[in-house]
Amino acid sequence: MSINISFKNFINRYYSVIIIAAFIIVSCDKFEQVHNKTISKLPTPSDTLFVNNIHFLADSTRILNPLTAINVNDRYLVVNDYIDHNFLKVFSIPDFDLSYSWGRQGRGPGEFMAIPTDLGTTENNLFLFDPLSQTLKFFSVSDSSLKYIDESDLNFDGQVTPLNRIHRISNELYFADYGGDNAISSADENFEHIALQPENTKPIFTFGNYPESDLDGFEKYAKFIKTNWGKPDGTLFVTAYISADNRIKIYNARGILKHDVIITNPNSESNEVVDDYLYRTVKWASDKHIYFLGLYGSQEMIYNPKFDSTYNTSLEIWDWEGNPISVYSFDKPIINFTVSEHLGKIYGYTLHSDDKVFEYSLPEIY
Q: Do β-strands 200-209 and 47-49 pair in parallel, antiparallel, or remain unpaired?
């Protein structure tokens, strides 16, 4: 009997220690320190980046209505074009010695019910998201085509609108926009992001808080549109508001806010900001750096179909602690780009040259 009592006491003490330890871990996780930071002014552009190579595109691979561009394994540049068929333009890098268009709508394996709205990379392959079927489709990229590998559902119970701005954190974890009309209930519509697991309709968690405003529903979501990217090692996640707030947030993979950075003066020329003023978008990230496209202008000016020789965009390079490292001016109004640190290249395009990809040398900041 004494042996049984002693063993029972041991078990009770053991589980007490486990419970206390778990409580400490959860408490520490919940109250991790947030590093709030205000930057009055970004660094002055240290130099202008000039095109060192122009890649001319064939008619079949012209970039007509681009959504995004991405570097795949430092071997391919893939551009997602918002057109019905052949919506992916694939180019070999760095030489552009091959190119092709790919992608069709349909219901077969590897086909899409709607033009994919999001794409990204896994360890070795490419994923695309079909917003109608709500599936992640995985492909390998070769010199001649994309090869279908597999697919997984990505959605959640109570979802009423398609997922937007999906980013892969790991094989088992993806982040997407949330809040506004995307929220399951009014009680949690102020959360900005949702964490999801493929083939699991139960949300893992929601995180991030919209800035204070009198807006709700879709108006709030539309006002605070942002872009995002994940650190390749899966530990951090960065977001940047495009227009409503000159602000950058960095979270860990559990959705805990680590760095909240507010820039009070977007540029050195003027403090006046109009309603449709655009700040920056996230375009690429490595384990060391985050690469932003600095827009700094009104939508009317940026998206004007008439070429404006006085307007150019910029490259911002930040670290994962929320510190701006360098700012460079592009010599052209680059509207989208992707980066290959391995090749030391930036590949971008403008709205005014659908038959060209502009190649820049990546500044040496390492």
A: unpaired
pLDDT tens sequence across 225-245: 999 999 999 999 999 999 989
CA angle 315, 319, 320 (to 5 degrees): 130
Whole-number Cα distances in Å, 123 to 176, 283, 340:
19, 18, 15
Q: What is the DSSP string of 148-216?
A: EEEEEE---TT--S---S-EEEETTEEEEE-SGGGSSSGGGTTEEEEEEETTEEEEEEEEEEPPS-S--
Rounded alpha-carbon distances, angstroms, from residue 106 to 57, 139, 196, 326:
27, 16, 26, 45
Residue 119 token pair: 């794409």
Helix (H/G/I), strand (E/B), else coil: 306: coil
pTM of the model: 0.88
DSSP 8-state secondary structure symbol assigned to residue 61: G
Phi and psi of 158, rounded to 5°?
Answer: 90, 0
CA distance 51 to 6: 77
pLDDT digits (tens, 9 = 90+) for 346-366: 999 999 999 999 999 999 875
- CA distance linking residue 272 with residue 100, whole number of Å: 45
The gap from C-alpha 366 to its chain's centroid, in whole angstroms, comes to 23
Among candidates 117, 84, 85, which has minimal Cα distance to 101?
85
Helices (H), the chain: 2-30, 217-223, 299-302
Q: Is the pLDDT of residue 259 over 60?
A: yes
Enumerate residues 6+ apart whose C-beta is below 8 A from 233: 287
Residue 281, helix vs strand vs coil: strand
Cα–Cα distance for residue pair 353/83, rounded to 1 Å: 17
Strand, coil or helix: what is 271?
Answer: coil
